[in-house]
Amino acid sequence: MRSFLIACSIIITAGMIFQKRFKILNALLAVNTLRKLAITVSMNIPYVRSKIMPSILGRSAS
Q: Residue 41 — very low, low, confident or very high, per pLDDT cuts 50/70/90?
């Protein structure tokens, strides 16, 4: 019974986070330090960097 309640709690919590994910993300990115950390981490991912940097610099993506 206890494991069932834990599983239900996890599922409900995950559903609530999924529903409010954009509000949570906006609240986290409103903090300057967290925003800089998110940008630094995302720019270390080659796929993201190759897709974002050309649009920032005004070049066509290849």
A: very high
